[in-house]
């Protein structure tokens, strides 16, 4: 006796009818446009993966393929978010800047705390490496130096000026640039040359407090340093 399949999944056996079950096949959901939260997460993922690639390969030799692979996204995604490699580099520098000098909306600390943070971050291995990269490649890619200065140094000086105005008055705001220079100084040059290690938080705070003292911007004697003192080579 021959089975035959009738419409609707019925299998007819002679004059009898047997109903067969259909396998449930889930509907394929078409991928729509990412939400705003998904875009922010994907952008952060790409930015966090970019610095190690640039430090390893340099700006000129780093490829979009390499940057995309490090972030586990497609090249098309990198292009869609940042336009090109230079756009990604600029966005990365902009993204790193608040880790050195926080945005005013979230920065409720003192001038001394900001100065110590600037020393600690700008003398860190990753940001010294970024500075070395820009110095090495700025002759071929001058936009790298402009980006690092405008989104980095200039921003940090402006944030120092805001704190100086708040704690010492408008007349002292002109000391922001000299203070920034002292926070880097000869020690930063030695860091760029690979002659000294990165400072600890305690060493960074001691260096910052010394710079503030040289310019007459030290905290009142009644306000002790939260990190104490330590000598940094």
Description:
With 233 residues, this protein is mainly alpha-helical. It has two domains: 36-85, Orthogonal Bundle (Arc Repressor Mutant, subunit A), CATH 1.10.10.60; 100-214, Tetracycline Repressor, domain 2 (Orthogonal Bundle). 59% of the residues lie in helices and 5% in strands. The chain has helices at 36-61, 64-71, 75-82, 85-96, 111-122, 125-137, 142-168, 176-192, 201-214, and strands at 3-6, 10-13, 16-19. The chain has a three-stranded antiparallel β-sheet with strand order 1-2-3, with no helix packed on it. Helix 2 packs across helix 3 (75-82), helix 5 (111-122) runs antiparallel to helix 7 (142-168) and helix 6 (125-137) crosses helix 7 (142-168). The radius of gyration is 29 Å and the shape is globular. The protein starts with a strand and ends in a 19-residue tail after the last helix. The relative contact order is 0.09. Residues 9-13, 19-29 and 221-230 have low confidence and may be disordered.
Quick recap:
This protein has about 230 residues and is mostly helical. Helices cover about 60% and strands about 5% of the residues.
């Amino acid at each position: 006796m021959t089975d035959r399949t009738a419409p609707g999944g019925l299998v007819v056996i002679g004059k009898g009818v047997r109903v067969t079950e259909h396998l449930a096949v889930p509907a394929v959901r078409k991928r729509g446009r990412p939400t705003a939260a998904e875009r922010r997460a994907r952008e952060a993922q790409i930015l966090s993966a970019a610095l190690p690639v640039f430090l390893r390969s340099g700006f000129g030799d780093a490829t979009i393929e390499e940057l995309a692979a490090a972030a586990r996204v497609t090249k098309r995604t990198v292009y869609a978010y940042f336009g090109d490699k230079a756009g990604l580099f600029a966005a990365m520098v902009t993204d790193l800047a608040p880790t050195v000098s926080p945005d005013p909306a979230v920065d409720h600390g003192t001038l001394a705390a900001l100065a110590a943070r600037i020393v600690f971050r700008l003398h860190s291995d990753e940001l010294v490496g970024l500075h070395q990269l820009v110095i090495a490649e700025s002759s071929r890619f001058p936009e790298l130096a402009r980006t690092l200065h405008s989104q980095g140094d200039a921003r940090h000086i402006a944030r120092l000026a805001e704190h100086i105005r708040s704690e010492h008055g408008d007349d002292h705001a002109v000391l922001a640039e000299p203070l920034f220079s002292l926070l880097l100084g000869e020690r930063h040059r030695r860091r760029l040359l690979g002659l000294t290690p990165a400072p600890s938080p305690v060493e960074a705070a001691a260096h910052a407090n010394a710079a503030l003292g040289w310019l007459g911007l030290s905290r009142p004697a009644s306000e002790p340093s939260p990190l104490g003192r330590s000598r940094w080579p």
